[in-house]
Amino acid sequence: MKLVQIQPGGQEREQVGPRLPEFLRKPRTNFHSVQLLKNDLRRLKLHTVCESARCPNMHECFHRGAATFMILGNLCTRGCAFCSVPKGSPVKRHFSLDADEPANVARMAREMGLRYVVVTSVNRDDLEDGGSHHFAETVQRLRQTLPGARIEVLTPDFCGDLDAVARVLDAGPHVFNHNMETVGRLYKKIRPQADYGQSLDVLEFAKQHRPEVLTKSGLMAGLGETEAEVQQLLNDLRSASVEVATIGQYLQPTRRNIQVAEYVPEERYERWRAYGLGIGFKSVFAGPFVRSSYMADLVSAEASGE
């Protein structure tokens, strides 16, 4: 759908895509809390996916002292259509891993007083191990520094290298998350360097390798998927023994990213939630502002029956 907006002076500017509905306009008012946490993160040279992916919940989460650490740097080797994380070749930019990053993540988590820590990363397809040793070291440092905290990892697919997946799992996270992001039909458009079946294999392997670890995956709505395709994805996740699903509205982070196909009405999320629970998920967190790591501590507690 094309819209024409009249600018000051009578000029016209064409807008493409549906207009953002009021229920998706989230206030950003906690500037002081956001700046304080950003200053602390920069002091230790740390990144968060909250900032790099331009999450709409950042003001809320930073204000309550929560953040999702993003390790392996701030440069991703993949070009997913939905993501605003900086992209490029670490090799061409002479970008090396920060050996202090695992310890600094643990230090920052301790300073923040976190009882639930979420760690994700960029894709590092340039590294032989996909960055899995670095990921595992970060988990180990967190376990040593915050022995009472629960740790959730949100990993890339490591190009299907199950040894890399096992390496991260063996470090001792409590929750293993790998996002499917979208339905199978849209993979070439949305995740051109990923594979639907491979991502399911990663999730299934995680549960087989460490049955005690809670498995989780998320998807975005509003990219052009049908309701039947979402149900099929939920079925595929359950077949892979995934226990927790998150579903939220895709919001275009920059003009360079793919446009929103649809703003999903709120009642559809409740249908998906009911469907997911009906086929055996322990928890389905679904709603317009739901993100994979949003309220992760509460979602984990619900799935664990706490």
How would you describe what is shown here?
It is a single chain. The chain is of the alpha/beta class and 306 residues long. It has one domain (28-303): Aldolase class I (TIM Barrel), CATH 3.20.20.70. Helices cover 36% and strands 16% of the residues. The protein is built from 11 helices and 10 strands. The strands form 2 sheets. It has an 8-stranded mixed beta sheet, sandwiched between helices. α9 (227-239) links the parallel β8 (214-221) and β9. α4 runs parallel beside α5, α5 (132-145) packs parallel to α6 and α6 packs parallel to α8 (196-209). The longest helix is centred in the middle third of the chain and has 14 residues, at 132-145. It is globular and about 45 Å long.
Brief characterization of the structure:
With about 300 residues, the protein is an alpha/beta fold. Helix content is about 35%, strand content about 15%.
| CATH 4th-level superfamily | Aldolase class I
CATH level 1 name:
Alpha Beta
The stretches of 5 or more residues where confidence is low (pLDDT under 50) are 1-15
Number of strands: 10
Strand/helix succession: EEHEHHEHEHEHEHHEHEHEH
CATH-derived architecture: Alpha-Beta Barrel
Return the CATH topology: TIM Barrel
Beta content: 15-25%
Number of domains: 1
Multimerization status: single chain
With helices defined by DSSP (H or I, 4 residues minimum), what is the helix count? 11
Assign an overall shape.
globular
Return the structural class: alpha/beta
Strands of the largest sheet, in order across it?
Answer: 3-4-5-6-7-8-9-10
**Gyration radius, in Å:** 19 Å
Helix content: 25-40%
Question: Mean pLDDT, rounded to whole units?
Answer: 92
Taking the sheet with the most strands, its summary is: 8 strands, mixed
Straight-line distance between termini: 46 Å
